[in-house]
Amino acid sequence: MLLRRQTRGSALLRGLQGWLAALLLLAVSAHGTPLTNGAVATAHPLASEVGRQILEVGGNAFDATVAVSAALAVVEPYGSGLGGGGFFLLREAGDSVRHTFLDARERAPAAATPDMYLRDGKVQRELSLNGPLAAAIPGTPAALVDLAEKYGRLPLQTTLAPAITLARDGFAVDAVYRQRAGWRLAALRDDPESARLFLHDGDLPAEGHLLRQPELAQTLERLARHGYDGFYRGELAEKLVHGVRAAGGIWSLKDLADYHTVERDPLRFNLADGRELIGAPPPSAGGAILAQSLGILERLSWREAEPLQRSHLVVEALRRAYRDRGLLGDPDFVASPLPHLLSDQYLDQLARSIDPDQATPSRALPPAPRWREGEHTTHFAVIDAEGNAVAATLSLNMMFGAAFTVPGTGVLLNDEMDDFAADIDGSNAYGLEGSSANAISGGKRPLSSMSPTFIESREEFAAFGTPGGSRIPSMVLLSALSYLDGEPVQAWPAAPRYHHQYLPDVLQYEAEAFTPAQLAALRERGHQPKLIDRDYGNQQVLYWHKPSGAVEAASDPRGIGQALKVPAPRAPVRAAE
Q: pTM here?
């Protein structure tokens, strides 16, 4: 296979296998049932193969996360990259299992202001979507360093080696790449460096075209050698700031040097059946939407409802949870309303407000602050044979981010500044409205719907996540309901999708979600169904049945991703329950 050939020459990888196998025995708990295997599920086969190789040579789930994140930065430039950020939900196995949320969301440059996109009193959307003024300070490189230094076993030189090879030697363009580059073709053409790297003679590269990114390979090599200082300080930082400012951006060297990830306590919510939802806290709104929706549905006996009634209840729960989303923001800047939003009293109130037979017009609900968000990300999940696990959602925001690549670095920048409320009285291209809690401020992290999620009990562990912007929480909810219903793991990401986000007051749905009779019945109840004419989302999920040790993974059938099982180390490994 391609990556097997690419990594065959790495003496470092081969040399690590023996002593890592012994280290595994010392690092794990003596309690619990051995896992039969590890697993990795990503949105791209090459990234899944990279994750498999790192697990096979003795790396843990956190090492595989570093390697997969870097590989996706190369082969999925439309979804994530070193110029972006993301969220990492971690499960550390051991005598006492620990869950951590690593916030690597981008931060606004210090010079950012609430009116930075106003021209003649009006917001100019193009400025927050394309070009360097749209870019916040990236968080992904810092996350890779932190994961390697605090949680991994392998050096960055090892875990970044496959991505370096892919960037230097190239990978074959596929139909998905062509489609997504086509959606951003004009913006990519407008930036000479992006056009040189991601197009071919100014047009979409043909399928099979070998796409090489030599400058990105050099940047990854610098990160591997120097860690944090290899990206956020020194020569590369100077190149990044010079390139951004020369093209009209506002980054400074201090912005880069001051960037840091934040370890936060995950959102935790007890479900009625003894399971626990472990999800993303602010600056993600996804965990709150999921917890609220599940809390409401538990009060409405969703399991016993026939299909149409269940869909009605799910939509009404989402309508209310998405309305409250606008109350959230970066917890380092605004107070968190989560204790109120997830309280029994408030969830009881929301459940009582749902008419079992009729849709509630969104404008009839008491208003909540407005909000906004872009939608293009990537997600993957990894579990090793010890029970360490990661669910990670990474983003550049729009497809290919800001479509601006800093010359000489290979770093394609995000346009996450568009996730702020540039105009709290308006809405963005997806109809998502602004929020004062999410107003632009220097050093602030924009609100997100990215929702890496675990559901865990003594008997089971499941991991969920997907790209998809505002639709992320509704997709994860439907997958979680499939899991809670006892469906096989392959069914979770395949479940037909529908979505409601409070405003606009529209029930979006995939063609397979409802029959014609069900659509007619939903309209009679006051819903406003609207067909989504293309696939959305790309879920990657994991399942571990603790009593047997069996581990499964599944990748969304809508995408080209791949879920791989990875054999456990030869020596017996035991994991904490």
A: 0.93
